[in-house]
Amino acid sequence: MVTLAQAGARGGDRLAVRFTTDRPLLRAFLEGDRLFSAYALCDLDDREFSRTRWGMALEREEPVAVVLEYAGVAPQPVFTLGEPDGVEAILRELIRPRVAYMAMLQPAVVAVARQYRIDPGPAMVRMWVDRSTFRPHSGVTTRLLPSEIGDLNRLYDLGFTSWLPAGAIAEGVYYGVRVRGQLIAAAGTHVISREARMAVVGNVLTHQDYRGRGHAKTTTSAVTQELLRTCDQVVLNVRSDNPPAIAAYRALGYQEHCRFEERLVHRRSGTWDGIMSPLRRLFPRKEP
């Protein structure tokens, strides 16, 4: 599908927007910001690619923006990269989820807001490490096995909203800390790409009774060390309003790459927004 979309920020210029499955073309564009594009690069691998849908904006046949929509139960993840007017054109013409978790760099926020209402929230920090900067943290951990998925999900049930399948451990890297047989801390991976030699650390959680003892740093260190055997870079996300976590990751050698927005967004409806806009003016939200 190819369509021409008027891009207001470009004045009289016109962008072509289209769906694409051209992985070499997508990879070349995403490599322009490899660290921010880590999830998207990993999704180009065979195991993930069938679950994705990609929209691209081009000017004179040169890519200027990409939007990735990952399949699944709404709200699904959506990733944006590139020139804001190109992102907006794709979201207006091609990738149009009703509700989504959208990742966007700050320059794209205004463009996204013309198509979506964006929930408030703190900025996210993308951090990264490689073999030259990694500083391992000593501590006793064990690599988790698929048979231990029940223990892992019981731990995660304290802080996460969805349970993981056993395949998450089989296909990823998870390390944990046990006290008297109970799993009290764990860290793992969201996605690993052997083609891109990139991995994303996530699902880091410590039982509330054992926090403040360095277990998150210990498990994250073990996962990172294992990933760096085959990956050139490892990345993770942390909320900007969580200085202790940022400090812990810095202690492992992680560095800040960028700050970005990862927000729940809702597709704008002319009728609904027409009703709500006057109400918002009459009853403005009070900041805490």
Structure commentary:
By secondary structure, this protein is of the alpha+beta class. It has 2 domains: 2-122 and 261-271, Aminopeptidase; 134-253, Aminopeptidase. The chain contains 10 helices and 14 strands. Strands 1, 2, 3, 4, 5, 6, 7, 8, 9, 10, 11, 12, 13 and 14 form a 14-stranded mixed sheet that branches. The protein is globular. The relative contact order is 0.15.
CATH-derived topology of the largest domain: Aminopeptidase
Mean pLDDT level: 90
Oligomer: single chain
Q: What is the ordering of alpha helices and beta strands?
A: EEHHHEEEHEHEEEHHEEEHEHEH
Spans of at least 5 consecutive residues whose pLDDT stays below 50 are 4-12
Topology, number of strands: 14
* Helix percentage: 25-40%
Q: Number of folding domains?
A: 2
Radius of gyration (CA) equals 20 Å
Second CATH tier, the architecture of the largest domain: 3-Layer(aba) Sandwich
Tell me about the biggest sheet? 14 strands, mixed
Strand content: 25-35%
- Termini distance? 46 Å
Identify the overall geometry. globular
Total number of helices: 10
Write down the CATH class of the largest domain: Alpha Beta
Estimated structural class: alpha+beta
